[in-house]
Amino acid sequence: MRNGARKLAESRWFAEVDMEVQFFDLDPMEIVWHGNYVKYLEVVRCALLDKIGYNYPQMKQSGFAWPVVDMHLRYVAPATFGQKIRLRADIVEWENCLKIDYLITDAQSGKRLNRATTTMVAVNMATQEMCYVSPPVLMEKLGIA
Q1: How far is CA 113 from CA 8, 64, 66, 69, 80, in A?
Q2: Are the C-beta atoms of residues 79 and 30 closer than 8 Å to each other?
Q3: Which of 2, 55, 113, 136 could form a disulfide linkage to 49, CB 3.0–4.6 angstroms apart?
Q4: CB 28: neighbour CB atoms within 10 A?
Q5: What is the pLDDT of residues 74-105, one digit of tens each?
Q6: Closest C-alpha to 141, from 82, 84, 70, 64
Q7: How far is CA 17 from CA 6, 41, 65, 74, 84, in A?
Q8: 83: Cα within 13 Å, side-chain hemisphere
Q9: pTM as predicted
Q10: Is 38 left (phi over 0), alpha (psi -120 to 50) or beta?
Q11: Of the candidates 87, 106, 93, which has an alpha carbon nearest to the alpha carbon of residue 45?
Q12: How much is the pLDDT for 10?
């Protein structure tokens, strides 16, 4: 590990997306506004959910909503206009919630820009009750049912 940095947990369920920082994502300091990183997490989370065949339309069809109930972001270095960045998402927990670790890096150098986690929980859409165990449909999509 470089500079004592904690290694991001990796799983067999992951996705990566490369993108270029757009002008409309910048703040007055000409770096990506901190709130836009949440949008970047959503971009790669959707790529990951597509990869396992359980994105938002499939969740709704299965009768479960999966709201984000917890989110942590650690900003390490700023992203700037035109910079090519790589977004990575890894599913690291699935039994009682869906926890995803994220890493945003410079696409060329691999320098870490941001590390994040989100936790999503299943909510039965018919009853509006939170599930304390992930529903079987998630295990099926992960191929561990």
Answers
A1: 13, 33, 27, 23, 11
A2: no
A3: 55
A4: 6
A5: 999 999 999 999 999 999 999 999 999 999 99
A6: 64
A7: 22, 10, 24, 19, 11
A8: 22
A9: 0.91
A10: alpha
A11: 87
A12: 63
